[in-house]
Amino acid sequence: MKRNLIIGGALSTLFTLAALLSFLWTPYDVTALNIGAKFGTPNGQNLLGTDHFGRDILSMLMVGARISIAVALAAVSFGILLGVPLGLLAAARRGSVVDEIIMRSNDLVFAFPSLVIAILITAVFGPSLWNAILAIGIFNTPVFARVTRGAALSLWTLDYIMAARVAGKGAFRISFEHILPNILNLLIVQATIQFAVGIIIEAGLSYVGLGAQPPIPSWGRMLADSQTMISFAPHLALFPGAAIVLMVLGLNLLGDGLRDALDPKIRRART
Fold this sequence. Notes:
Blueprint: H1 2-24, H2 57-92, H3 97-110, H4 114-125, H5 129-155, H6 159-166, H7 171-207, H8 219-226, H9 235-262, H10 264-270
Helix pairs in contact: 1-2, 1-9, 2-3, 2-5, 2-7, 3-5, 4-5, 5-7, 7-8, 7-9, 8-9
């Protein structure tokens, strides 16, 4: 529905603008400690209050939005750049050894959740933001490979693809000249969904200490720090939790709206 597209786009734009603004300005320095103002409730000076170190929560949420969006965007890009070509190759070589190797490799990756992958990577390279991106990107790769393969297979039997083969075009050229442009709408929708998933996974990794490392603010890290103080300072958990929920909700609504807008079958059914 158009309403989903508008609401989702508005929420996603709001957080994106806050993240971009944080590069230039935040109400307070997120690394500055003010112990005398710790556990401050929302007021005129600190609109969302302060944490246990006296840091401004609004400023931390703005920088945290930057981290979450950057990690999710990098991880989705990783999944697209690796997963889409693999999916196109598997569809072009349907039923072959290449197809079997690609799809069974995807099954192997699916057997390990992103958190487990992150733990394995961390055990070798140590916890960092880049390792979180790598873990989420590896998890995204088989998702895009499967979606691409499934959509491409339905196109390989169509007449215009047969005509391209008769004209002497190879599988590689057909995949990128005829197949890929016709499944872009599906990939765009899937990218918004995986973006939302990336936000959640990044927050989870930061929550257990495998994502952004202090003093870099992260929504997941803010939730982890607040869990022992929620009884007397609930705002420490309320605002980062609400940020995660609203960001993910906005991306899901955006993906739903884009699906309705880009899918010709849905458009025809409504007209």
